[in-house]
Amino acid sequence: MINKSLKQLSQALAAKQISSVELSTLFLDRIERLNPTLNAFVTVDRKKSLKMALAADARIAAGTAGPLTGIPIAQKDIFCAEGWTTTCGSKMLANFVSPYDATVIHKMHAEAGLVSLGKTNMDEFAMGSSNETSFFGPVRNPWDTSRVPGGSSGGSAAAVAARLAPAATGTDTGGSIRQPAALCNLTGLKPTYGVVSRYGMIAFASSLDQGGPMAASAEDCALLLNTMVGFDERDSTSLDRPVEDYTRDLEKPLNGLRIGLPKEFFGEGCDAEVMTAVRAAIAEYEKLGATTVEVSLPNSHLSVPAYYVIAPAEASSNLSRFDGARYGYRAPEYDNLEQMYEKTRAQGFGAEVKRRIMIGAYVLSHGYYDAYYLQAQRIRRLIANDFVEAFKSCDVIMGPTSPSTAFKLGEKAADPVQMYLSDIYTIAVNLAGLPGMSIPCGFAGGLPVGLQLIGNYFAEGQLLNVAHRYQQATDWHQRRAAIE
Amino acid sequence: MNQWEVVIGIETHAQLATVSKIFSGASTAFGAEPNTQACAVDLALPGVLPVLNKKAVECAIRFGLAIGAEVAQKSVFARKNYFYPDLPKGYQISQMDLPVVVGGNITLQVGQGDKAYEKVVRLTRAHLEEDAGKSLHEDFQGKSGIDLNRAGTPLLEIVSEPDMRSSDEAVAYAKSLHALVQWIGICDGNMQEGSFRCDANVSVRPKGQAEFGTRREIKNLNSFRFLKEAIDFEVQWQINEIEEGRRIQQATVLFDPDSGETRMMRSKEDAHDYRYFPDPDLLPLVISSEWIARVQGELPELPVQMRERFVSEFGLSNYDATTLTANSEIAAFFQLTVGIAGKQNAKPCANWVMVDLAARLNRDGKEIAESPVSAAQLAGLILRIADNTISNNIAKKVFEALWNDEGATADEVIDKQGLKQITDSGAIEALVDEVLAANPANVAEFKSGKEKAFNALVGQVMKAAKGKANPQQVNDLLKQKLAG
Q1: Contacts of A321 in chain B (CB under 8 A)
Q2: Which one-letter DSSP state was computed for residue A133?
Q3: Is B152 left (phi over 0), alpha (psi -120 to 50) or beta?
Q4: What interface predicted TM-score (ipTM) does this complex get?
Q5: pTM of the predicted model over 0.90
Q6: Least CA distance to A325: which residue of chain B?
Q7: What tens digit of pLDDT does each residue of A404-440 get?
């Protein structure tokens, strides 16, 4: 059961081979056993989970179950869930119990009948690429516990990779779904900006954040994505468009698919073994009937600098609400209001969050705004235009997800710039608002390598199709970390 | 004082009369228990997002149309970042570079009677924003309380050009604006509850100088009296400073109504850097021409249109027409009165409403909406003057009787109190003869050329007639007899 796909689990539940309570217990037991090693979950609440499982079993018995009713999943601790501690990986919110459900959580719980097993660890406020900035300690990569799982959705990635959950939610602001998926041998999808509601998803950088699924396969991602999407009147940036069934096109043949290979993604800066695996995957696609064409994203070298202006700018403002006045952490001692703010925020936020708040406040300051913030917005438009141009000659863009495989804990923690560069291939996708995926495509030195697929706006269905066909032909995604 | 010119610009915050808040569904009703009208969005819980209230936008459109301004096709909400406990998000959502209303002007009447003059004040802009909550500094054992009921209440900030040249002009502007926002139904105008509050930017310069002097901004004036007192004090203070050789420093000041003085709150050096940037949670506000047309169709007749109609339709002077359209209650009362009394009596209707009724209301400290004499009663009275049933003097008595509820209609009062005018020339002649016979001294004086004696004789006749004799007939008959 532990290694079954969502479709197989769904069938098993429907056929009454197993109940949701039994299935959830199986995973909860596994979490209890393995989480001390991995630190993938920050909150587990067996009682709450089993209550949901019981309700799901009732729906299955009553014949009102949806395709995923009763299936347990892990929730990144960035999504507010009513009655659950929702920490966002921060001391600031270590004691915050959300009084309401994020739209995504509501859809998964109330509509789809999924069972949440708990809240997964993450980089503090989603700021990080290694899950080392979490107040609750680093997450370990199930493939090698001396290594990081990637970030910021590192807890979700480790949980699914170690089969502590069949699937998980993640969020992706600059690569936070795709990079950990690559480092943990998972399939992860960041949808087009506006497809998944951000209501109740604690904001890091509002114009870049997007929730999405992380799972063992493209098919699982498609099933999970079906439960997450839809217009939400509570999110003004949510897009009002017809709901799709993302499993519909999974089986479409890839004959004639034009794969764009940006020359900027195949140059220097990428680990050679990673590149070998990526090229082998592209060769496999050619066998499946696709053709390749070189494209160019001439401004992609500007994506990291632009991102590290825009994301911190938005974050510096988004995180202002954490002031100790109404909820969350408040410094125990202070003499006046100013001190309450200073001490609360000095003690409540970790170093990386403070670094980004300071960068953000700086680039928005009077006299610097034009040179940094406005300039970064101009670059953002150039980057988006690069993709528009590229998609004139191809259907999907491919390249590495991350320049390296999972690195050692502590290896890059002291060098923020090195850390930021681990998202060099993923960030442009967020700046452009496009959908992107990472799928397992091989191993380098025994560690998973991810292939990144980038689609045009609203091409989630096509990306899932392209990923699924590859997964029909290969078995990289079925390799499991040997952790017991 | 005479060689100095005063320059005043005014920023007004008008609370918009919407049922719910500008970015949430919580109620805007005044006076509820603290924090009972603050929902998750108003409390700025982690993950919540703002959704713009279309009703607030409609209020802005109404205002723009009413002042002949440009309603922007596209405007942008921006975040104004600063920390304060009654500002839950740590930023206020406002509009900065692209406001919803641009330009426009208001015509006002300054002064009264012969000294009255018209003045056009240009408006710079008006923009939508949210109000903050309230800090309560009493009764919490040394701590401060926060009430977030007001947080998120929609405001229209209306900014004038520095077009006013005296405190009287400033007050006239504020009153006109106050009347207008109520006239078009976008603000209840309640100044005690803070629904309408003004900041005055004040500077002085030597007459004839083209450049403006350095301004100081007086914050939060919530009555017309305070507005005038604050400006008068500030102007005198600035002139003294300059005459004593000091320079005015740009600053924000507060007015203390008890001392009648302004005092410095912060200098330009302490001014916040608000780090404005476009709010990524809200899309640009796009207003279609269809939407504007629909709002235009729903607008009532505006004061400026009504003023022109009063001149053309009723032959009133500009001054009368402006006075009668100073606010919607006066205008409604006048229109009802003239509707019954008839167009031919428009001028006496105007005089009664503007002079006699206004003075009487003023004496009792009443608003026109609370007038004990209704428009129908006043019209009935005016009709009796017009048909010579009573003289103007008697009419004042009848009016006072109606005011004191001594009769339901003018006719009833005239009847009951026997006030009908004597127009029987025989009866008047008898009275005249009586008076001439009884006052030979006055007759002699008149005949020796003392015109004044004539008035004494008229007085005697009217006295004998208990005021009811038709004055014209008395005059004519007396002249005739004395000449004879």
Answers
A1: 44, 46, 88-90
A2: S
A3: left
A4: 0.96
A5: yes
A6: B85
A7: 999 999 998 888 888 888 899 999 999 999 999 999 9
